[in-house]
């Protein structure tokens, strides 16, 4: 019973170990799959972030600032590291600069349009200045009546008027040239800023491509590592499976040897029991078939026995236990043993006999001798 209990415990432990190992391998494979899925999600988020940044720059270049704001809003929750945060802030700054540039262009265009309208409708310098400054509407400009001296000539008046108009035109041309120069400087500064932003954008795109290449290379390396890890895990699983198989084969072989050994022992035990039982039956047959008697030999009383011949002879050496009575109903007066009885010259004084005490009251020819048992020597 103890052997069976120990074997059952070992089997239970082995099965538990196999199940736990299989669960651990399954959990490891599930973990690798989960990591792959998380990496893929991170890649998708990064790609979506990159697309939003590129679209934001395009919207800002097209002066569609609502579109740029929408792309910035889309990219904001997708920030994944410090570099992406810097890129988002740079896009926001670029969008704000482009809006300032757009508003400045609109302001300058409106200013040029106003100056042209004032120049066409306000020939008087004072009115033109007020019109350009926004203090006088161009429709309110009018020619002022010149004052003439009563003693002056019309030629002098016309000369003065021509000189005033020439001076006004020169002043207007100077103002226009100065404003144009200011506008050109502003446009050059804005263009330089735009070109700087373009260079920065190209550098960012190049950096982004390098990062994408690095990420792709990292993903390829990770996939190779994961594939190698899976191969190693499979090799370990196969090695463990082979080891478990060898252990199971050894266990089964040991169990078979134990069962064979127990079967041999049991067979030997049964054979011995069968042999002992057959010998006991053989001795019982000798006991029941024994014929005993007594005679006087040279003044001594001897008991002899004749045993039946039974084949095969299972017990070669026997002792015949007997009892002696003076009559069939009288008490037993002696108990003895015919040792190493071999059935030689039964009934003869020179045969296989044993002496009994001469003190037995009755003569030998009156003995009633019975075999009580036959035993092996």
Automatic annotation (TrEMBL):
Organism: Marinomonas aquiplantarum
Ranges of Basic and acidic residues composition bias in the record: 194-204, 231-258
Lineage, top ranks: Bacteria, Pseudomonadati, Pseudomonadota, Gammaproteobacteria, Oceanospirillales
Signal peptide as annotated in the record: 1-24
Chain spans, region Disordered: 191-258
Protein keywords: Signal
Source organism superkingdom: Bacteria
Keyword Signal tagged: yes
Record's protein name: Uncharacterized protein
Compositionally biased intervals (Low complexity): 205-230
